[in-house]
Amino acid sequence: MVRWVRFADMLHGIRPSQSIKLFIFWIPLKKLFSRTLLSIISIQLMEKIISEKVNCLIIGSGPAGYTAAIYASRANLKPVLYQGIQPGGQLTITTEVENYPGYPDGIQGPEMMQHFEKQAARMGADIRYGLATAVDFSSHPLKVQIDEEKWIEANAVIISTGASAKWLGLPSEQRLNGHGVSACAVCDGFFFKGKEVAIVGAGDTAAEEALYLSKLCTTVHMIVRKDTMRASKIMQERVLNTGNIKVYWNAETDEVLGDQKVEAVRITNNKTQEKTTIPVSAFFVAIGHKPNSDIFKDWIDMDETGYIKTIPGTSKTNVEGVFASGDVQDKIYRQAVTAAGSGCMAALDAERFLGEKGLH
Ligand SMILES: Cc1cc2nc3c(=O)[nH]c(=O)nc-3n(C[C@H](O)[C@H](O)[C@H](O)COP(=O)(O)OP(=O)(O)OC[C@H]3O[C@@H](n4cnc5c(N)ncnc54)[C@H](O)[C@@H]3O)c2cc1C
Fold it and tell me: One fold for both 52-165+289-356 and 171-285?
């Protein structure tokens, strides 16, 4: 009975293809080997599946993950951090960062993230390449699979996997990204103070970003695909009552124009097919973000768009021992400094949790 339970446990942690192979081998194995031998094989396979045990596992290497790593290291939690496919996170694809405190002259995004990494490593965080590809939070210790291969057991897990901006998918948008094309008005609007800019989107975030830009820029050209906006009534009213926001209804973006930097945007009215070229210095895309939370969806409570829900005022999720920080749980602020702040919260919450459980 014990051996069967072990075998079932073992199957729980492996991919379907592996389970089929094991099942096919099971019948001849049963005939060939004694139960004792089978038990030894089971134990060996199980050791392969759970190949490492760690105290605190941090998933993600943006401002949230690295800050969690700094605090967790200094609290002697011996954190292991997996960087994911974008070591350093979203700021590695931007140029100047002017709003992160402590850099009076501003700093390039990639350089700032190197500083984060260096500081976390100096405190003793074990920083590794690798992607979390699956989790099993059904019991404690928590299980996280890395690169579809090895499984790690962790007493506490901090999720800091961020969110990705959605783009229109135009080649010119990609080419001029960071040269006037941006997905963050709060981050980059200041660089276009006193200039004309365009923004595409029609939801609450787009409305909020258009209003933010209207206080810095001379004219904000707002491109809306339909003849209505998705934004709440109050936000729509604020947009429509702001003198320097000009809304283009039924408008599709054809192309962002410019050689080295954004110079204009060409749109087509999808009812009349009329084309208009609007001279602008920047093009903001505000059509939404996608939180990188897919692998957690069977275990962690999320809102309808995939943002992880945390208990207000904490980084705690619905699963004991699992904490979330940064953009993956923040659909409102989405800034490096707020991500870092919540990374600190997650490490402190993890430390308290481990202390209460006698694991630290
Ligand atoms: C172009 C641009 C410019 C910006 N400019 C500014 C600015 O000037 N100032 C500012 O304050 N904010 C700015 N922001 C916003 C800022 O970058 C984010 O708010 C911040 O990076 C969020 O930090 P985070 O740690 O939550 O996530 P992210 O920075 O998104 O990092 C997420 C990390 O998780 C990792 N990851 C994801 N999935 C997995 C997985 N399955 N396994 C392992 N790792 C995983 C990724 O590899 C990445 O390292 C900008 C954003 C963009 C896109």
Answer: yes
Rounded to whole angstroms, the Cα distance separating 358 from 360 reads 6
Residue 10 near residue 45 (C-beta atoms within 8 A): yes
Quick one: which atom of ligand 1 is closest to the CA of 86? Answer: 47
What residue's CA is closest to ligand 1, atom 38? Answer: 161
Is the domain spanning 52-165+289-356 CATH 3.50.50.60? The answer is yes
Domain boundaries, the chain: 2-48, 52-165+289-356, 171-285
Catalytic-residue membership of 184: yes
The pTM assigned to this predicted structure is 0.81
Sign for the CA dihedral angle at 330, 86, 166, 149 comes to: negative
The finding on whether 62 has its CB within 6 A of some atom of ligand 1 is yes
CATH superfamily of 171-285: FAD/NAD(P)-binding domain (3.50.50.60)
Instruction: Please indicate whether residue 342, judged by its CB atom, sits closer than 6 Å to ligand 1.
Output: no
CB 72 within 8 A of CB 93: no
344 carries an active-site annotation: no
Q: Which of 9, 126, 136, 184 is catalytic?
A: 184
Nearest CA to ligand 1 atom 43: 84
Give the mean pLDDT per block of 10 residues along the chain (360 residues): 36 42 48 50 53 96 98 98 95 89 95 98 98 96 95 97 95 94 94 97 94 97 96 94 97 97 98 97 95 97 97 97 98 95 98 94
Per DSSP, the three-state class of 55 is: strand
